[in-house]
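Task: sequence in, structure out. Protein: GMP synthase (Glutamine-hydrolyzing).
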Amino acid sequence: MPRYLVAQSELPEERANRRERAGKSAGETYKATLLQLSPRADVTIVSPADEDAPAYSQEELAAFDAVFLTGSPMHVYRETSEVARQLMFMRAVFASGTPSFGSCAGLQVAVAAAGGSVRKMPQRIEAGLARRISATPAGKDHPLLTGRPGSWDALAIHGDEVEALPPGGVLLASNEATQVQAAEIRHDRGVFWGVQYHPELALGEVAVSLQGQAEDLIEAGLAHSEEDVDAMSRRFTALHRNPEDRALRWQLGVDAETAEEDRRRREIINFINHAPALRNGG
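Result:
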């Protein structure tokens, strides 16, 4: 029975807000996804950024088969006590040798913990979908991206991005909006695989996220009005309910890589399959 640790960087109020909007915190979404993929797994959720969060020793972290870092509104480049606690946790994960995976802010936390840098996106945010992601030469044969076509779209919603990978970082995928869409990081005794997009999310959760950030999307020029955002959100919700609907796929401009759950989750599935070989830098 695998033991997984899910580390969510949402703060208590952010977790409560997400539960009210989407029914789950980011950590609870990850746990649900992992249990669907590995029904016998023992999944623990922790919140390292919280002021009263228990500290995990390297030995305690090494008892887990893998660590997963969630997305969140956390801005890793801000010097706050919450960010400092999250980075300290990630450095302990690297030192423990336990393989780790993260998406969105999870990737950014791993990058910053290993000595790279994160910034606010200078041009535009990605919201709903990250378009035309393509593997780099290093990514084409990397097991994280096994099964992905030459170019694909993925669920995404972020206004921050990786500015520079740390030493030991390998760029695996990019698109026009964000250079670092997927990466491997080797630091201390650990190996991290991560993506800027969200393979753990359901289409319905993206619909809720879009509605919750309508003002930001309008300000960023991605929508003209709240009605535009609502219309896009309704399409995501409808495709969530009926992923085979060809008309909805056409309206959103997506294919099976986005519409079908197993294909959206490729990176998580690939990581789970390879995690035992990644322990202690393997």
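The longest strand covers residues 126-135.
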